[in-house]
Amino acid sequence: MKVLIVGSGGREHAIATSVSKSDKVDKIYCAPGNAGIGLIAECVPIKAMDFDGITDFAKKESIDLVIVGMDDPLVGGLVDILNENGIRAFGPKKNAAILEGSKAFSKELMKKYNIPTAGYETFDDADAALKYLKGSKYPVVLKADGLALGKGVLICNTYEEACDGVKTIMVDKQFGASGDRMVIEEFMTGREVSVLSFTDGRSIRIMTSAQDHKRAGDNDTGLNTGGMGTFSPSPFYTAEVDDFCKKHIYQATVDAMAAEGREFKGVIFFGLMLTPEGPRVLEYNCRFGDPEAQVVLPRMKNDIIDVMNACIDGTLGDVDLQFEDNAAVCVVLASDGYPVKYEKGLPIRGLENFEGRDGYYCFHAGTALKGDTIVTNGGRVLGVTALGSDLKQARENAYKATEWVSFDNKYMRHDIGKAIDEA
Ligand code: AMP
Ligand code: GLY
């Protein structure tokens, strides 16, 4: 079969790598892809938000399955348009992708169906928000309603900071139309865990857990980023946590969406916080996490095409989802200055060192081909991932592998997986 993957980051490279292992697949395309994806797929220069371009291409090439990796096209309704044109696609339709597309929606869903999360209020109006903030407990969390590249969340320690936050989101519209509406949420404390799952709208299968490192600097300092590294599994995701989430969160979310007439087929990403009062949902995403996918997918035993087909066909209940009894660590190599300002177009050396090395992956996040040379083309450049028999071994392997590649201004965190030592 022929598969088209939509997206261009490390997540899509990890998906493409899993797809390439399926013996059902003869040819992989990626729109628009990147230089690394280009080594295992044919990249076509169609942007992820060019729905007509993607639909025309899928028709022309008789694509059997389109896998939409990114949030923007999912929230925008790409899967609906593909389906309307008779093209099979993996990912939620627009009316279900709203689970990530609107924080006001997801908070209301959780409240209505008693899914544990932080207390909150929703505001469409800056003055009403300011009035509410006068009586709030601090710190408090402000969230722009819509997609904001993971940046629309502000944690404010004082009333003054919160006033500035309201101005940033609702008045200055720093996150664009995402800030027309805002959620004000109770601040929670605890460890964060990312849990990805597959669902067919009725059944849900949980993948192995992972933890992201969102801040740019060591010891969680500096600005929020898309993610600087991950490890899987999380030693903090205990059997007790798993039991609680199975009872109160996972199936409850799928059922809630179905009850609302918004059947969710695809990947639900549960961003959890393990608070002293128990696990709480921080956020939902409607797709694989990045860089979570880079540590979770290499550990998956199943043929990814079988699992995706089961999600589409409503037969996930028959699938036994299995993961290797090992561990993985991903260290992101970024361009110094990310997430603010950084150079692009710098040649990358040493990529060949990964060839033929079992258990090591160099996922490309932001790379491009310039002539015959692979160059940097984004803030996050590569996701260097290694497997190991346990987390410590995987971490050692991943950091060793970060030395195999180089480019000018190469930057990484040195404490990915440090939390493992505290487990
Ligand atoms: P979100 O995009 O909703 O996951 O928020 C981004 C990050 O902000 C999360 O990964 C948390 O680190 C932090 N955050 C979000 N909501 C809260 C909350 N209610 N309490 C504490 N931290 C939060
Ligand atoms: N790593 C977090 C995300 O993909 O949203």
Task: Set out the fold topology.
Elements: E1 2-7, H1 10-20, E2 27-32, E3 42-43, H2 51-60, E4 65-68, H3 71-76, H4 78-84, E5 89-90, H5 94-101, H6 103-112, E6 120-123, H7 126-134, E7 140-144, E8 153-156, H8 159-171, E9 182-186, E10 191-199, E11 204-212, E12 215-217, E13 221-224, E14 229-232, H9 239-248, H10 250-259, E15 266-275, E16 278-285, H11 292-296, H12 304-313, E17 327-335, E18 360-364, E19 367-370, E20 373-376, E21 380-388, H13 391-402, E22 410-411
Parallel strand pairs: 1-2, 1-4, 2-3, 4-5
Antiparallel strand pairs: 6-9, 7-8, 7-9, 10-11, 10-15, 11-14, 12-13, 14-17, 15-16, 17-21, 17-22, 18-21, 19-20
Helix pairs in contact: 7-8
Bound molecules: adenosine monophosphate (AMP) and glycine (GLY).
Provide an overview of this structure.
The chain has helices at 10-20, 51-60, 71-76, 78-84, 94-101, 103-112, 126-134, 159-171, 239-248, 250-259, 292-296, 304-313, 391-402, and strands spanning 2-7, 27-32, 42-43, 65-68, 89-90, 120-123, 140-144, 153-156, 182-186, 191-199, 204-212, 215-217, 221-224, 229-232, 266-275, 278-285, 327-335, 360-364, 367-370, 373-376, 380-388, 410-411. With 423 residues, it is of the alpha+beta class. The protein folds into four domains: 2-94, Rossmann fold (3-Layer(aba) Sandwich), CATH 3.40.50.20; 119-186, 2-Layer Sandwich (Dna Ligase, domain 1); 191-318, D-amino Acid Aminotransferase, Chain A, domain 1, CATH 3.30.470.20; 327-422, Alpha-Beta Complex (Glycinamide Ribonucleotide Synthetase, Chain A, domain 4), CATH 3.90.600. A hairpin with a 4-residue loop joins β10 and β11 (204-212).
